Amino acid sequence: MSAPSKFIFSILLFQLLFVSQPSHRILTTAAGGSWQVLQKSIGVSAMHMQLLRNDRVIVFDRTDFGPSNLPLPKGKCRNDPNDTALKVDCTAHSVEYNVVNNKFRALMVQSDVWCSSGAVMPDGNLVQTGGFNDGERRIRVFTPCGTCDWQEIQNGLAVKRWYATNHILPDGRQIIVGGRGQFNYEFVPKDITANKFNLPFLSETNDKGIENNLYPFVFLNVDGNLFIFANNRAILLDYVNNKVVKTYSAIPGGDPRSYPSTGSAVLLPLNLKATTIQAEVLVCGGAPKGSYLKSLKGTFIKALNTCARITITDPNPQWITETMPLARVMGDMILLPNGNVLLINGAGSGTAGWEQGRDPVMSPVLYRPNNNVATRFETQNPTTIPRMYHSTAALLRDGRVLVGGSNPHAFYNFTGVLFPTELSLEAFSPAYLDAKFNNLRPTIIAPKSMSGIRYGKRTMVQVVITGQVNKNLLSVTMVAPAFNTHSFSQNQRLLVLGNDKVTALGSSTYNIDFTTPRSGNLAPVGFYLLFVVHQDIPSEAIWVKLH
Fold this sequence. Notes:
- This protein is mainly beta.
- The strands form 11 sheets. Strands 22, 36, 38, 41, 44, 45 and 46 form a 7-stranded mixed sheet that branches. It has a 6-stranded antiparallel sheet with strand order 8-7-4-3-39-40, with no helix packed on it. A 5-stranded antiparallel sheet has the order 1-2-34-33-32, with no helix packed on it.
């Protein structure tokens, strides 16, 4: 988008700052997905994003840049003598977005949540940790309800956590790994064990003066250990005994993939029908060595155009590299309900950091992990809104991907800059939502959403499919709702449960028997989105609680 166009767009944003009425406008539509602007402004730039079990998305930015463009309700103000910008702030820095009615309401955080982390606990509450300044040792809790707001616990963390990563463990606790200057991990809630545990791997992957190991990529392996990737390499950690049980080689080429040379990563879908369950990790994008320091001096190096894939459960695991159609730094990777991966947001050159990215990548890319290597990537339709540093994305229950944020500035800045602060929310609809697939799309009619399911039990879901059904291509999948910030979706996980038996009942109705995950190592206790996928076309999900 040209500078004059961006200027006009900025003026329009100011005219709509406090409007929260639905705005449905299709930007592009074709076989490669479609884009829709949901809100032209929610008043807050979406640096962090989390979907909750009531179909509300919690969005928040940071507090130390001055006023946002959304006032707090009923004359509320945050009085914070430690804030570096405003001691008394009567504007919101967090929002609850209602997916169903496309409206939002202001929330009030009481400390600085800048570059923090979090995860949804087994009870469905968002437990969110760390940040900057007076927020660096805070624990914050948000309970899903129509009138709830943030609750905070001072000094709930053992140490300062800024740019850390959280993950839910099989026993329902969160582990919090790393953060700036923190080469250790700790647990929430606390127990009788030590408050923190040293993790030398994080200091070993710390590039002096650059870091390149913040927001490490953390995944729960199927054996209960944690795969932790930082910079350009990884370990498998037995966090219970604080022991590294496996060291993985560096990605070929050795270029960094972690913040600020920010790539992204996913644990590929786990096929629970397999005789031996394998776990694979895919790491995509990032910035070549030296890019960060060069970007500080105004030289923006082209981002990495490679992905690296590894089977972490192999006895002798090796990275295999693949080439993306578009180079990307600061991109997000979202697991879609049919098992494909969506690469979205980001820049074509530079790194993370204030004013340090260039060449926005407007087109998402679809990655089909089960295809032959030559046919895995497919470029999708582009957005018209650059999503640079501090952008976010999250899968919704209806299969769309919510996209927000982009603020590569130290403050909110709407004029005279290459990439103005972005306050809008968009939805990307993958091609599987096209109306031409409606006859293949399952509709779940039983059980009702919010049902409970137990480990290792044969269970049934009932669906309606109006078109011709291929029983061999009917599968149940479960997706854990992820906490998204800084190009990484923490706690993201997709389980392929397949089907044990499909029974036709007549009137286009089918019973699908499936077996739930057998242990917390495969799927930690808590709330999941349960989809039925038919010939690659997913249903709308229902919420289930695994216990």
